[in-house]
Amino acid sequence: MNDLTDKVAIVTGASRGIGRAVALLLAIQGARVVSVARSADELEELAHKTNGLAVPADVADETDVQNVISEALRHYGRIDILVCNAGVGSFNLLEHFPADEWDRMFDVNVKGTFLFCKAVLPYFKAQKSGHIVGITSDVARRTFEHGTVYGASKFAQDAMLGSLRKEVRAQGIKVSTIYPGLVDTYFNEAKPGSLETEKTHLKPADIAQAVRYVLEAPPHVVVDELMIHPLTQEW
Asked: Where, by residue number, does the polypeptide cross the bilayer (predicted)?
């Protein structure tokens, strides 16, 4: 297995839910975690728990993204892992969907992934190694009512990561995509921990373990795609 000790990992959307669980688990495995989100207070608390670095940033702002990369390199001297987890969701019939919500969803879910991947690639190529893990959604592979815009953003994110995987594989860079089903988080104004979500949803820790699995695969193994969803979820 691939040892994560002292690997430098950037995790976006780290203040809550899946991102927080990923940051905590990677820290337990010995990684040096750079936690990224807009909430400075929640990030500082997480940085204390992970003994890592907190960098508040808007993932859709290129200046903020470059600052995250600069801070990671200034503190640790290298970057080994990028976990693109930041995401937002909103659901409505297409005819009622506000255009500004379209912009927000594509900015975070698609542009954020694009900007971070673009920013780390020069360093990954220089060291001839690196691993990008994109956390998309199982709706990147299916469609559903009220999911026109969210699904479109996840299809786009998935296509980008899939194409990038082919572009960089020969240069020693891995790109893996994880497709979670329903997860018990604050996503879309949900309240985690209710009796209903306890029975039907995955836990953030489940997705964190999936991230760990693909990162710890032996160097010659590439886990391109990993679907994880609760057995109760209907397709």
From this structure: none
Check: CB of residue 192 under 8 Å from CB of residue 16. Answer: no
- 153-200: per-residue pLDDT in tens? 999 999 999 999 999 999 999 999 998 877 655 554 555 444 455 556
In a domain, 16, yes or no: yes
| CA–CA distance, 135 with 53 (Å, rounded to integer) | 21
Catalytic residue among 123, 150, 179, 186: 150
Contact 57, 68 (CB under 8 A): yes
E strand or H helix at 26, and its extent?
Answer: helix 17-28
Supply the pLDDT for residue 112: 98
Q: Is 135 strand, coil or helix?
A: strand
Look at residues 118, 37, 133, 28 and name the one whose alpha carbon lies nearest to residue 80. Answer: 133
pTM, 2 dp: 0.89
CATH number of the domain bearing residue 199: 3.40.50.720
Residue 3: inside a domain:
no
Pairwise CA distance, residues 7 & 130, whole Å: 10
Lookup: tokens for 57: 């940033």
Give the pLDDT of residue 184.
Answer: 54
Task: Give a yes or no: residue 192 inside a domain.
Answer: yes
Residue listed under structure tokens 């160097």: 219
Q: Does residue 233 belong to any structural domain of this protein?
A: no
CA angle 62, 66, 72 (to 5 degrees): 145
Q: Say how many C-beta atoms besides its own lie within 10 A of residue 148's C-beta.
A: 17
User: Is 58 in a helix, a strand, or coil?
Assistant: coil
Q: Any idea what the Cα angle at residue 24 is, between residues 107 and 50, rounded to 5°?
A: 105
Using N-to-C axis directions, what is the helix angle for 17-28 and 204-215, rounded to 10°?
50
